[in-house]
Design a protein that fits this description.
Helix content: 10-25%
Largest sheet: 9 strands, antiparallel
CATH class of the largest domain: Alpha Beta
CATH architecture of the largest domain: 3-Layer(aba) Sandwich
Radius of gyration: 23 Å
Number of strands: 18
Oligomer: single chain
Structural class: alpha/beta
Distance between the termini: 46 Å
């Protein structure tokens, strides 16, 4: 009998994942990961990990499976929290959920599961795994979007490797959320009606400003409003010598200085803000809401523009450095000067967009069919063929 360790998070999805695996005849162990100790920045009524670990324990007892808790808070702080502080400090916006899957659930957690003698780990993610049998007898694993398009979580798993996928099961990938809740109700699982968790992976709801202020001290600076006419694409488009110089031009970040706009307010630190952000600026009296279009952490300035359609928010092309390119399917990776038409997204739940990948010596351009709003350094771009996520990278 194959042994599977399920990451029981105390939510309905992982509860049903454990139930389905047991039904399928696996020897199932439930493991709860405790990744967070600092309750000073969590929203206090929801002491997330205590309540969640209790719920996970009750589910394990109900299903008649062994259960234990592992404390991964040291690894979590090192691999996720410290990384987040570093990225924000540099004016980038990290994605802790993608990192948490790559570094914690499918690395540290996977190693613990294998030490327990498991053949696989399983999670309650809404995605699917495909297997291609190769002529050589080896297998290639596919990361496929979940059947429930509203809940598809393949984007959060965009950094997984072939080795990680070979040891992973996604039991609820073929189900929709309502079907999962229905199974939980039928089995009288305590998590059946539990709300989905919000906020950072495994921390629960965190007040991000307070969280960041633990390490990144407030520093007053100016908020500048940039008129739409100052956008970099208002100038004459130059003649391009080749495709690479065209892509380089369209991928270039806009550069503003304080003289380009009007001072409209003050902020507590440019490193607390991210592109596309609207909340927290506390500037009134504008015809349309202000959005952050660029931050400058060196000079501690935030550049803003009025309205969702401000040209400063939009860019057609982004770049991923060579060291940040990750192919879930290495057999499909591009060689220098090759290109590939794909569908891509730059954030979770974004509709897939038409794009073309262009590989150059120093990295990879992702050129979209239409300009994208708030392309943000530090976030992940993921690219797909059909329903299959084949690669990803960190936006630079």
């Amino acid at each position: 009998m194959k042994k599977v360790v399920v990451g029981l998070s105390g939510g309905v999805d992982s509860s049903v994942a454990a139930y389905l695996l047991k039904e399928q005849g696996y020897d199932v162990i439930g493991l709860f990961m405790k990744n967070w100790h600092d309750d000073s920045v969590t929203i206090s009524e929801e002491c997330p990990w205590l309540e969640d670990s209790n719920d996970a324990l009750i589910v394990a007892e109900k299903l008649g499976i062994p259960f234990q808790t592992v404390d991964l808070s040291v690894e979590y702080k090192e691999k996720i929290v410290d990384y987040m502080f570093r990225e924000y400090e540099m004016g980038r916006t990290p994605n802790p959920d993608v990192l948490c899957n790559r570094e914690i659930k499918f690395d540290v957690f996977l190693k613990i599961a294998l030490q327990l003698g498991a053949d696989y780990v399983a999670t309650g993610h809404y995605c699917r795994k495909g297997t291609i049998k190769n002529d050589s007898g080896s297998e290639t694993y596919q990361l496929v979007a979940g059947k429930d398009k509203n809940k598809d979580q393949s984007y959060f798993l965009c950094q997984l490797s072939q080795e990680q996928l070979s040891k992973t099961l996604f039991p609820i990938g073929e189900l929709t959320k309502p079907e999962v809740r229905q199974i939980a109700s039928k089995m009288n699982l305590i998590t059946a009606d539990k709300k989905d968790s919000q906020g950072l992976c495994f921390i629960g709801k965190v007040r991000l400003p307070e969280f960041l202020q633990q390490q990144l001290k407030p520093k007053k600076g100016k908020i500048i409003e940039i008129a739409p006419s100052v956008s970099k694409y208002q100038t004459m488009v130059p003649e391009f010598a080749n495709k690479e110089s065209e892509l380089e031009y369209y991928a270039k970040k806009p550069e503003y200085n304080i003289k380009d706009g009007t001072v409209v307010g003050e902020h507590e630190g440019a490193h607390y803000f991210t592109k596309g952000q609207r909340k927290g600026l506390n500037v009134g009296g504008t015809k349309e809401p202000l959005f952050v279009i660029e931050t400058d952490v060196e000079e501690n300035i935030i550049y803003t523009g009025q309205g969702k359609s401000h040209p400063g928010l939009y860019r057609r092309t982004l770049f991923v450095q060579e060291s940040e390119i990750h192919w879930v399917r290495p057999d499909l990776s591009l060689k220098e000067d090759e290109s590939l038409k794909v569908k891509a997204r730059i954030r979770y739940r974004q509709e897939l967009q038409n794009a073309t990948l262009y590989k150059i010596e120093s990295g990879l351009y992702v050129d979209f069919g239409e300009k994208q709003s708030a392309i943000t350094e530090g976030q992940f771009v993921a690219w797909y063929q059909g329903d299959e996520l084949i690669g990803s990278g960190v936006i630079s």
